[in-house]
Amino acid sequence: MRPVTIVAMLAVVATTAAQCARTSASGRDEHRVTAERGRYLVESIGCGDCHTPKKMGANGPEPDTTRLLSGHPEGEQVPPPPPPKAPWIAGTTWDMTAWSGPWGVSYAANLTPDQNSGIGIWTEQMFVDAIRTGKHMGISRPILPPMPWQALRSLNDEDLKSIFAYLKSLPGVSNHVPDPIQPTATH
Ligand code: HEC
């Protein structure tokens, strides 16, 4: 066998080994867009802390998996929040789906693919743009705290597209989340 052929073969082996190392780090292929990878990211980042309604369990609030990632429940009336008073400037409801602070009141969005109340009509590009720019649907009003888009925008394209693929694979839950309330209207 000619030496050049052996070198070429070694290069193939090295490349394959490197790909295996990348894959095994998280147990997943990090260079492909898959809903499975999106699930891994959503669960490890904890989107559901704010976006999944809770039910009361033996040890306190726990995720209501029948309404996974469907946002602040539309029927849940919450009274106006107490005024922010330093050093306690932000507050949240028992299920962490409604938040108050200097920005007013914000409600965690419905991330399920329901056509009317969720992200059913969103394109992949709208989702990526929303997270990257901090603008509602990627083009309109600023996305309010505590949605951590400033941190999430560091995710690469494959990560964000995988998250979108996972969200689109969820059962759609019809739940119209209220619009945010301006600070002047709350105090
Ligand atoms: C600390 C709470 C919190 C966490 C964690 C969180 N979000 Fe949010 N998110 C919110 C709130 C509150 C809103 C609504 C903000 C508003 O109305 O401006 C929101 C809004 C959104 C929106 C709607 C943006 C738009 O254009 O209207 C998307 C999409 C979203 N979140 C995706 C995610 C994903 C995906 C994750 C996890 C990778 C995540 N969020 C983690 C609180 C959170």
List the main descriptive attributes of the protein structure presented here.
binds heme C; 10% strand; 7 helices; three-stranded antiparallel β-sheet; single chain; two-stranded antiparallel ribbon
Structure report:
This protein has 187 residues and is an alpha+beta fold. It has one domain. Helices cover 37% and strands 10% of the residues. It has helices at residues 3-26, 35-45, 48-51, 124-133, 149-152, 157-169, 183-186, and strands at 54-57, 60-63, 91-92, 98-101, 104-107. α2 (35-45) packs across α6 and α4 crosses α6. The chain starts with a helix and ends with a helix. Heme C is lined by residues 42, 45-47, 49-51, 99, 106, 108-109, 111, 130, 136-137, 143-144, 146-148, 152, 163, 180. Residues 42, 45-47, 49-51, 99, 106, 108-109, 111, 130, 136-137, 143-144, 146-148, 152, 163, 180 line the site of heme C (HEC).
Cα end-to-end separation: 81 Å
Low-confidence stretches: 12-25
The tally of strands reads 5
Mean pLDDT: 88
**Ions, cofactors and other bound molecules:** heme C
Tell me the structural class: alpha+beta
**Tally of structural domains:** 1
The shape, in one word, is: globular
Radius of gyration: 21 Å
Relative strand content: 5-15%
Helix content: 25-40%
Number of helices: 7
